[in-house]
Design a protein that fits this description.
homodimer; 504 residues; alpha/beta; Aldehyde Dehydrogenase, Chain A, domain 1; Aldehyde Dehydrogenase, Chain A, domain 2; 2 domains; 7-stranded mixed beta sheet; 5-stranded parallel beta sheet; 15 helices; 19 strands; 38% helix; globular
Chain lengths: 504, 504
């Protein structure tokens, strides 16, 4: 039945065998295990960061901060599950007078899907890799986890896995709940295995689509949560530029150049009024930025090609010229490139220009007075992770003459993105409960979910209802005596006669 | 760009154009519209039921009850949205001392996906058809609705659509939010259109898979919620039979024969101890049941073939013989068939026997003493909508010698079904908040959702977050003054230092 190699077969078999025991663990014990992993990663920070610097070219400051972020993600997920609210426990009391005839006692809560494969990202070797956000959500949900390591940081992946394995075992978790595998073929074979019940991924549109199609075309299809590509349009009003051009320019450059622009939320396009002082402000704050190594030679070559393509598109003018230099190992070292183009030339060169540039490059589109900004969203973009609006203090009150126009733009963005920002920059995604990191295709494969924030856990759960179950056979979260003290949403008997009555 | 015929193009364009206005309606106004549709359907009940009887062969009693159920579903959805809890509004307060550095104000709630196509079912001409459960959920969510009529009841579909259109307009809903189309090609063309954002379906595995594959392979894939096939295994203990064989036999026959067994939750298989009195009890309560017309000639032919196949499988013994008679119009008239087979012969004939029989046929599998019932679930079944256990009053206390064995069976069922029942029958799905009507493939295409119960609405929503948004540009549900009074889950500043601290 299985087409797996022997080592993969034993991994999938172990994950599958561990699923019932892991599903039966208490949220509290899983929370303790997640915190143990967080502590263990922080305890090994210097060693792990050293490997990561060598493998990814990211800076020590960035990577040190990323380990902390990863630990915080694990702790947030731990805290998110312990009160049991994530189980969405609902109890409908039996009701002899139910409007459609006597209704049984029905109780429903969420249960783990089973083994999940998570494909790591290249650009967050900690926070979206072996023990990153998706992994934390999968383990928090109670699903055995198989991580497919990213080929860009194999040694770090092994080292992280070793730390995590030890911490999970030390916290008393069942054996077999966590495995690391290497190689694309191995990842695909596991994704195709009937015992694997979901997949998650962070990476390119091309690979994400390939994997999503595999998940959807299995004999038994499974959900696949991919975070793919995004160009994150930003709109800046004339008044905002008049108010604080220098501040905006500085924030913009920081957001474009941080981590060499290799972030899924990098602002790829900025719409600003034609003839504004923004380009000059950017030029004046740019100075002489240092080089930053790109993640790997393949990404560097791709970025250099893409940059040439953008610079060669008709009407594109450099504001900050930047460049890419290749060293003897084939690594590319980039300095930031910012260009400007008129709306007319952006329209003409749309297909060449609108694609994501994965690296430190951003495009300013200069819009003539009277441009209907809201209509630019559906004209130029599919789904995106973010959309941003910079407005002046006066405009923020919603009382200026252009308030309706700005509201239309906000609404248009909310139809095509997962997060709408005001007076900020989309990089630096806050790890907080209400965060939404997702968006319509191709930003993600599934825009009803998020890969950051506590709602990320729900991706790996499914509901099961129990009808007229004796107390002895109910999950703890659904029992009358509620031994875990989880929030239970109770629909009392006798209410159905009133349904809709308020709205006659 | 579009490959739609002119009439379909105008329908999809109208639905797409109506989406922003419909998304902007208040939950209260949509609730009023849903109740108006419910009232209008009940007001036209005699006329609609007359058409339905002619087109489907279902009985007046069943169809009259189904109109009531449909109205109740609409009223339940109305009540489910008005308090705004379905929006899952979350507010993370800005936090200068956030553990990863100052965090912005982030607010998140759910927003409608946009136009949705719903493919109607054959077997519930009201409750899963034009204004059935999926349609109610789609409209409740604020998504424009395009219904593809089932070919089995085209006249009823038109009549229902006319009643609904009038009621929606009368309730002041925007034009263009509801359309009815006919024909499979039309349905597929609409499902493929980029402006359509999700699909729902109730029907066979074959057609559901076809449509799910189309939804997944679009240039921009969309979620597709299909409720497909299920055989709903039932397990009955020796003690339960000893306690109440007659009652169980009567309930079983009612569940198998109601609506001529053309229900997705019909109990297709019953596992009972070898040599029990259950077959005799069934025989004695069966009597001479009347004929019931099957929905359409195609379903009747399919059922007759399937019945012959089951009866011809080695070791299959009739308990209640039943049959199918065809009239001059090609309609099939069925009486119930119940057969028994040993576990050994069920194993031998598994591939032929285990498939769903859509009609009044059910198979009793007689299990030798000592059979590990829990292991039969993964051995014989993929996903199912339901799994049922009948046990004695003493066994229900969880204190009998076989309690651990019964718990294993319950756990095994919960891994493969969406609803686990005790001492009841899976037909007659209660329309209540905690209901779960869904299950692992092939019961549904997406087992993290339900098509009955208030959680059904969430299928047609996606989250959007707002970061540092001025109050004037926030959706009402996320504003500080909370003008709609919706539940807001607030993460206060200053808590992040504590994350995980409890679990050190």
């Amino acid at each position: 039945m299985s087409t797996l190699t022997a080592p993969l077969e034993s991994i999938v078999a172990a994950a599958s065998a561990a699923a019932p025991a892991f599903a039966a663990t208490t949220a509290q014990s899983r929370a303790q295990a997640l915190v143990a992993v967080a502590n263990a990663l922080e305890g090994e920070k210097p060693r792990l960061v050293e490997i990561a610097m060598r493998e990814t070219g990211l800076t020590e400051a960035r990577l040190t901060g990323e380990v902390t972020r990863t630990a915080v993600q694990l702790r947030l997920m731990a805290d998110a599950i312990v009160d049991g609210g994530y189980l969405d426990a609902r109890i409908d009391q039996a009701d002899a007078d139910f409007v459609l005839g006597a209704r049984p006692d029905i109780r429903r809560s969420l249960t783990p899907l089973g083994p999940v494969i998570n494909f790591s990202a290249s650009n967050f070797p900690f926070a979206f890799s072996v023990m990153g956000g998706d992994s934390a959500a999968i383990l928090a949900a109670g699903c055995p986890l198989i991580v497919k390591a990213h080929s860009g940081h194999p040694e770090l992946s092994d080292a992280t896995a070793e730390v995590a394995t030890r911490a999970l075992a030390g916290a008393g978790m069942p054996a077999g709940i966590f495995h690391l595998i290497h190689g694309r073929d191995a990842g695909i074979a596991v994704l195709q295995d009937a015992r694997v019940k979901a997949g998650s991924f962070t990476g390119s549109i091309r690979v994400g689509r390939l994997l999503a199609d595999i998940a959807a075309s299995r004999p038994a299809p499974i959900p696949f949560f991919g975070e793919l590509g995004s160009v994150n349009p930003v709109f800046i009003t004339a008044d905002a530029i008049a108010e604080r051009a220098g501040e905006i320019a500085a924030g913009y450059l920081t957001s474009v150049t941080g981590s060499a622009g290799q972030l899924c939320t990098k602002p790829g396009f900025v719409f600003a009024p034609e003839g504004s002082t923004l380009p000059a402000a950017i030029k004046s704050v740019a100075g002489h930025p240092g080089e930053h190594r790109l993640l790997d030679p393949r990404i560097a070559t791709g970025f250099a090609t893409r940059r040439d393509e953008v610079l060669g598109s008709p009407g594109v003018t450099p504001i900050v010229e930047g460049g890419v230099r290749f060293d003897e190992q084939g690594h590319g070292w980039a300095t930031p490139t910012v260009v400007a183009v008129s709306l007319e030339n952006f329209r003409a060169g749309h297909d060449a220009l609108v694609e994501e540039s994965f690296g430190p490059l951003s495009i300013i589109v200069e819009t003539p007075e009277g441009t209907d900004l809201a209509s630019l969203m559906p004209e130029f973009y599919e789904g995106n992770l973010t959309g941003t609006l910079h407005l002046s203090a006066q405009e923020a009150t919603g009382t200026t003459a252009n308030a309706a126009e700005l509201q239309s733009l906000v609404t248009a963005m909310s139809h095509q993105v997962g997060r709408v920002l005001f007076n900020g920059w989309p990089t630096g995604v806050a790890v907080t409960p209400a965060q939404q990191h997702g968006g319509p295709w191709p930003a993600t494969t599934n825009d009803s979910s998020t890969s950051v924030g506590t709602a990320a856990i729900t991706r790996f759960l499914r509901p099961v209802a129990f009808q007229n179950a004796p107390q002895a056979f109910l999950p703890d979260a659904l029992r009358d005596d509620n031994p875990l003290g989880v929030p239970q949403e109770i629909a009392a008997a006798g209410l159905s006669q009133e349904w809709g009555a308020r709205w006659e």
